[in-house]
Design goal:
The chain is an alpha/beta fold and about 190 residues long. It contains five helices and six strands. It has helices at about 1-30, 65-80, 95-105, 125-145, 155-160, and strands at about 35-40, 90, 110, 150-155, 170-175, 180-190. The chain has a six-stranded mixed β-sheet, with helices on both faces. Helix 3 links the parallel strand 2 (about 90) and strand 3. Helix 2 crosses helix 3 (about 95-105) and helix 4 packs across helix 5 (about 155-160). The longest helix has 29 residues, at about 1-30. The two termini are about 35 Å apart.
Length: about 190
Amino acid sequence: MKLIRIITPLVVGALIGLLSPSANASLTSDLTDGQHVLLMRHADAPGYGDPKGYQLDKCSTQRNLGELGKRQSVLIGEWLSGQGITSAKVMSSPWCRCLDTAKLLNKGTATISPALGSFFDDMSLEKQQTQDLEKLIQSQLNSNPKVSLILVTHHVNIQAYTGKVVDVGDMVLVKVDKNGKYLSHQLYPSPKS
C-alpha cells in the first residue's frame, strides 16, 4: 500500500509531463502556420473607458495599467514563454494601456497600429475598424507567415472580430482565412498569479 502511494503521484506527474508539451507545441505550431493570430485584451487598467478629453499622445490623460495590470502583463509573457513563444511580432493599439501590456510581455519590440485602436467612444467605427484589423492580419501573415503574431487591443475590437467577450489579459487564438477574416477561435484565459 505504501508503494502505491509513492508510485501513483509519480505516474500522474509523468502523464501530465507527456501531455503538456503537446499543448505547448500546438499553440507554437498554430502561431507559425500562417493561419493563426493571437489577439489579446490589454491587462488590468482600473476604471471604465477613458477620462473626458484624453489624448492618445499623453498617457497621463488616459486610463492606464495599475500595478496589478503590470504584474499580469509580465505573468502573461512568462506563460507565453512556457508555451514555447519566446519571441513574436507584437503589435499594439495606440492606447498606452495596450502598448505597456505589449512591452511587458517581453516578446519583442511593440509596434503601434491604428487598426488595433479602440472604437469604444464611437461605436459607429466598428465595421471600419474590423475591416482594418482584417487587412492588418492579412498583410502581417502574408509577409511573415512563420512568425508568431500577437495583437494587443481592446475588448470591443476582439468582440467585434470574434463575437467573444473577453476579460482583461485574456487571449484569443484566431484561425483566419487568406483575407484575414475570422474563421474560428480558442480562448486562453489570462494566467493567474
